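REVIEWER CHECKLIST
Item 1: Sequence provided? yes
Item 2: Single chain? yes
Item 3: Sequence as submitted:
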Amino acid sequence: MDANKLDLNKLWQGQTVPAPDFNALKSKIEKYKRKHIKKGILGNLTLIATMVFLIILWLCIDFTTLFAPAGLTLVVFAIAMAVLKNHNIQRSYQKLDVDNDNTRFLDNLLALQLAQQKTQKVFMNIYFALLACGLGIYFLEFTSRMDFQHLILAYGLTFGWIAFVWLYLKPKISKKQNKEIALLIEETKQKSDLS
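Item 4: Structure as written out by the authors:
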C-alpha cells in the first residue's frame, strides 16, 4: 500500500512553471509609448505654431498701450514653458525600453507616472493661470474701447472656455492618463512578480 501512495509534495515540486508571457505586455507598452510620443509631438507642433502666430501678431500690430504686449509676453511665456515641459515628458516616454530588465523597466514606468502626476497637479495649474492672466491683460487694450455688453461677452467667452478646459477637461484627461499608466504598472508588477 505504501508503494501505491502518491507523494503530492514531490509531484507539486516536480512541475515546471511556465515563464510569464511578456510579449503581449511588451507590445501593449510599445503601443502606449508610440501613442503618447505622437500626441506629444503633435501637441508641441500646435503650441509652437500658436506661439509663432502670436509673435507675428505682436510684430504686425501697432499697440497703443503696453497692456497687449505685456499680455502677449505672458501667454508666449506660458506656451514656451508648456513646450519645454512636454519635451521633458516625451524624453521620459522614450526611456521606456521594454528590453530592459523588469526592475529597471518598472522603475522607468514609476518615474514616468510621477512626472505625469506632477505635471497634472502643479504645472498645468501654473500654465492655465499664466494663460488666463496674459489673456486678461492683453484684452485690456481692446476692451477699454468696447461697450459693457461686448466687454462681458469677450471676457465671458474667453474665460469661460479657459475655465471649461481647466476645471472639466483637464481632470478628465488626467484621470484617463493616470488609469492607463496604473494598469501598465500593475500588469508589469504581476508579470514580473514584483508586487
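Item 5: Key structural point noted by reviewer: The two ends are 44 Å apart (CA to CA).
Item 6: Recommendation: ____
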